[in-house]
Amino acid sequence: MNVAAFFSASAYNTVCEFLGSNWYAVLGTLGLAFLAVCHIVYAFILTAQNRRARGDERYAVTDRRPEVSWASQNMLVLGLIILIGLFLHLYNFWGHMMFAELAGVSVAHDPADGFAWIQDTFANPVFSILYLVWLCAIWFHLSHGFWSAMQTLGFSGKIWLKRWQMIGIVYVTVLMGVFAFLILSFWLGFAPSYSSAL
């Protein structure tokens, strides 16, 4: 969906209109929100269990073992940055689009005009920088989470662990790279203008 914004405002807005506040989009949003809350709650439970299991000796050794990634040691901090970024994203897009349409709230642009909302949001350097920081945190979170999930599901081992790590890094880098390029292209002004993209 977001890749369409590089090429055509009308194509991007067609997707926005298709989603909008239709029942399937609302249902999907509620489902994602439920899963996100479950993920956050479960992460806090795991963090508390790990701290309890280590007891008073958890700071006795501060050196990180080579197989323990920086992301895994800082998953809670990364998660909090991602949560703050999510609230920012909900404010900038969901609040002005789906919520505004559902609530009948008057906003600066048509709620289905996602291209205008992208232009407005990323024309602001503060929002652009905050989004780029958010994407970095998501990169660390997902690059660890991808292979960690495979390990949890039992699809790992001495040979496949490194492969899953590499697959995860490549996949997440491409994914976050597309989002970062979108932000930079609108921020720095080399994205199509609204009129030329129609």
UniProtKB/TrEMBL annotation:
Keywords: Membrane, Transmembrane, Transmembrane helix. GO terms for cellular component: membrane. Coiled coil: none annotated. The chain crosses the membrane at residues 23-45, 74-94, 126-147, 168-190. It comes from the Bacteria. NCBIfam families: sdhC_b558_fam. This is Fumarate reductase. It comes from Prevotella lacticifex.
